[in-house]
Amino acid sequence: MGMLALQQLMSLQRRRGSIASVRKRKASPCDQDGDGGSQACKRMRCSIPDLPEDIWHYIHSLMPLRDAARVACLSRAFLHSWRCHPNLSLSRDTVGSSDKIDHILRNHSGHLKVLKLGLDGISCRYLDSWLHIAVTAGIEEFTLMPFRRKYNVPSSLFSDGVRNSIQYLELGFCTFRPTAELGPLRSLTSLHLRTLRITGDELECLLSKALALEQLVIIDCKEIICLKLSCTMPNLETLVLSSDEEVVNTPILPTKFLYLKHLTIDMVSGLSFSPSYDYFSLVSFLLASPSLETLILNVTQQCMEHESAVGGSSHLRKMPEHQHCCLKSVKIIGFSSAKGLVLKLCGPCN
After folding, report:
1. If we measure between CA atoms, which residue out of 187, 184, 226 comes closest to residue 207?
2. Which end of the chain is more exposed for a tag (fewer CB within 10 A), N or C?
């Protein structure tokens, strides 16, 4: 979008230049005396439109990162705009070396709104320094994927200014140990944790700091033995839980998610789930979500070790009749005849 706008402006400038060249043959301003004529001639030969600086910054911010970096070589105006570019996504593919990442982050310190760091194959020796340089007050979205599980994201990174501005936080393939000393994340509405080393108690501590949270995604965080979701998230609308090693039954939730609309539970296993896992315990999510509109349940496994509902000797359990009048879409992937999975999920709706 940014490149298209730039091309349109350049095309317009070329058309204006053609008209100006005709006028120049009639009366060239370069033939006039004084500095004014000389300056007019220089402006006429300039191939870049003369626009206010904030417009250039806006056009530049719409460009893909590679294009934004390349056009910064065209002029000092673009170079200044590049140093104030609010969105950065850096990885080995886009940058290539640690030295370049260090140089870019230092030049953009204090200007970033969106920062995505995917550091697969890049040394993390200087990562603490990079983060404290780049993650400053005013940042709104921050994604960190260092692919170093032993790297511990420092809680000191989340200063008062950062906590007040950050709205989207994604951490993956590293370690995060939040403590009670972590201040409130007042603006955080979306939290994504992917293959993150964090315990259930630490997650509970983190969630207690994010009262405005609307979206929570937890994928393959193996240190979470017991997932504790409580009334600390009164505004939660989207919840995604993914695990391939579910062995502990889902506890009855102590509260209701009054605004939860979209629930995804992904329990894909390469082999089979433990027979001790009770699918029926997932009903607690339904009971706790009276406004639920979309339910996606993925229980794919290669073979089933649970007792089958087909030809079984015991009666099927049923949850009490419960109205889910808001429920519009239910999708179950990997459905089997396991007794705990064959449930009466929804009561009649008026």
Report:
1. 184
2. C
List Cβ neighbours of 71 (8 Å cut-off, separation of 6 or more): 6, 60, 63, 78, 82
Q: Residue 27, Cα to own-chain centre: how many angstroms?
A: 58
Distance, CA of 252 to CA of 256 (rounded, Å): 11
Q: Count Cα atoms within 13 angstroms, Cβ side, for 314.
A: 8
Q: How far apart are CA 88 and CA 310, in angstroms?
A: 55
**Model pTM score:** 0.74
Residue where the block lists tokens 């999920």: 345
Give the model's confidence band at 174: pLDDT under 50 very low, under 70 low, under 90 confident, else very high. very high
**182: DSSP letter:** S
CA distances (Å), 316 to each of 124, 281, 307, in order? Answer: 53, 14, 11
Structure tokens at 302: 């290669």
The string of DSSP letters for 48-71 reads S----HHHHHHHHHTS-HHHHHHH
**For residue 263, what is the enclosing H or E element?**
strand 262-266
**In this structure, what are the phi and psi dihedrals at residue 181, rounded to the nearest 5 degrees?**
-70, -15
- Choose between 295 and 39: higher pLDDT: 295
Q: What is the pLDDT of residues 283-302, one digit of tens each?
A: 777 788 889 999 998 877 65
The torsion angles phi and psi of 216, rounded to 5 degrees, stand at: -130, 125
25 in helix, strand or coil? helix
State the maximum Cα–Cα separation within the chain, in Å, rounded to a whole number.
106
Closest CA to 184 of 209, 218, 154, 212: 209
Q: What residues does 143 pair with on adjacent strands?
A: 116, 170
Instruction: Determine what percent of the chain falls in helix, strand and coil, rounding each to the nearest 5.
Output: 30, 15, 55
Distance (Å, rounded) from C-alpha 321 to C-alpha 309? Answer: 20
